[in-house]
Amino acid sequence: MPQLTWLGDTDARRASRRVAYRILEPAETVGDPKAENLLIQGDNLEALKALLPFYAGRVKCIFIDPPYNTKSAFEHYDDNLEHSQWLSMMYPRLELLRDLLSEDGSIWVTMDENEAHYLKVAMDEVFQRRNFIGEIIWQKRTSRENRAALSSSHDSLLLYARMPADAWKIHRNKLPPSGKGYGNPDHDSRGEWKSIPFSAQGWRPNQMYTITAPDGTQHTPPRGRCWAATGPEYEKLRSDARIYFPKGGKGKPRVKQFPWEEKGLVPMTLWPAAEVGDNQDSKKEILALFDDDAPFTTPKPEALLRRVIQIATNAGDIVLDSFLGSGTTAAVAHKMGRRWIGIEMGEHARTHCLPRLTKVVEGEQGGISEAVGWKGGGGFRFMKLGAKAFSDEGALNPEIRFKDLAAYLWFLETRIPHESGQFTSPLLGVHNGTAYVLLFNGIIADSRPERGNVLTTAVWNDIRKLLPRDRRETVIYGEASRFSASRLKDLEITFKQIPYDISMR
Fold first, then answer.
1. pLDDT above 90 covers what percent of the chain?
2. Cβ–Cβ contacts within 10 Å for residue 321, how many?
3. Pairing mode, strands 59-64 and 318-321
4. With 60 as the cut, is the pLDDT of residue 450 above it?
5. What secondary structure does DSSP assign to 155-210, as a single string?
6. CA-CA distance, 278 to 291, in Å (whole number)?
7. Is the pLDDT at 441 greater than 80, yes or no?
8. Residue range 143-154: average pLDDT?
9. pLDDT above 80 (res 201)
10. 56 and 164: one domain?
11. Which of these three, 388, 411, 446, is where a domain ends?
């Protein structure tokens, strides 16, 4: 597979591993305190790294609208980067987003022609080319720009999954039927219906026969096609009054389809503004929420995000946007009953995203609210990026809490988030037969000076009571061990010293 190269690409490919792990600190809660939704203020590269211990492999849908590198001055984003800088900014973020995505999940990235083709090659590399699902053309503008050499009217949505399209389509949803085209010209007692062609692609001998219309006209299958069913199946449909002949009874046969029989529509790659809104719609939505000018020049309409989330998720799934911008992704996900994580840097997270999402909880009626029956409810936690868990020299931050270090170590050892995310004892859990234990900040409440942070016989006796009988070995993190190497081996214990045996990345 071709590989994209650019100035600084080697450093960019290593950048995600070098990002320091920071602690997520709660700043305030809006609405239901039990809600799992998160609005995070801070650099999205560091925020994504901080999410890994809790959400790796759990995010069903990622939608991002990164800066387009258009050489224009955006107030809230540096959108005037050279191509190499832009790729170096995007690449490590794509790697972390991939690690957060579930096996049946998908990532949708909006981009214009300035970087879309470079982004496609970069995403081929990060997500693998065979997992490219398709490019969607979104009509972002309906008016013509007569000052331009070529009036741009669309953006691209690059769609990737963690599996090829044939496998992923089982997990995606079809779009709801349009509900259009129904009538009841023959007063069918079963109600309104619409007709669909009674033909199919291909050639099958038992589906190649002649059908006689009510007026006596003889019909054979259209050229290059066969009838949609065998002769006996056709006769059953005809006797059930399911066959319709247009043009006064002389046209080619069609099949009646009733509304309850529609199974949804396969998404297409062309999304007109009439169906999902355009930039003007999104600006109106933002202006209705804020008294000042629109915070972003190109926000996305709620209808566009609704379609993405309809296709990619079900109720309760997690939706992530690490370039939250004006907050549209989180607002739509909330209204549609999905869990969400939004990341936005700078004061914009507090001055625009926080009030907008607060209004959603309160039941604001803009955007898709009426279409989905939104009346308000739920809640979210506003989080900030705290201090680094480790200093640049590798020392553990003295202010780190047990639960934060526990989550980090669990992920470091198992590469999966903890099932509950709750750590209330030194036994963090058991994974593939190995028990993981953390002796830190007196979690055992030992009365000696070590306060339970040192592996001693007394501490081990307390730990052993917590261990399941079927565990094969035990990994213990602590300040020090008073056990000899032979005793550790006999007890099937691997001891790791804090902080020296903890990876900083």
1. 67
2. 25
3. parallel
4. no
5. EEEEEEESS-HHHHTTTSPPBPP---S-B-TT--TT--BEEEESEEES--GGG---
6. 21
7. no
8. 90
9. yes
10. yes
11. 388
Quick check: is 223 in a domain? yes
Tokens (6 digits) for 195: 């007709």
The yes-or-no verdict on residue 449 having pLDDT over 50 is no
Mean pLDDT of all residues belonging to the chain: 90
Q: What pLDDT does 74 receive?
A: 44
3-class SS of residue 226: strand
Q: Number of folded domains in the chain? A: 3
Residues 66 and 149 reside in one and the same domain = yes
Do residues 163 and 306 share a domain?
Answer: yes
Does residue 273 lie in a domain region? yes
Domain boundary pick from 244, 261, 278: 261
257 and 129 within one domain = no
pLDDT of residue 81: 57
Whether residue 164 sits in one domain with residue 243 = no
pTM of this prediction exceeds 0.85: no
Point out which residues pair with 154 in neighbouring strands.
139
169 and 252, same domain (yes or no): no
Closest of 82, 154, 144 to residue 111, by C-alpha:
154
Cα–Cα distance for residue pair 65/67, rounded to 1 Å: 7
Range(s) of the domain holding residue 457 = 402-497
358-376 burial: b if 16+ Cβ within 10 Å, else e = bbbbeebebbbbeeeebee
Distance CA 502, CA 343 (A): 27
Measured distance CA(45)–CA(25) in Å, rounded: 16
- Token pair recorded at residue 303: 């209808």
Regarding predicted confidence, which is higher, 499 or 231? 231
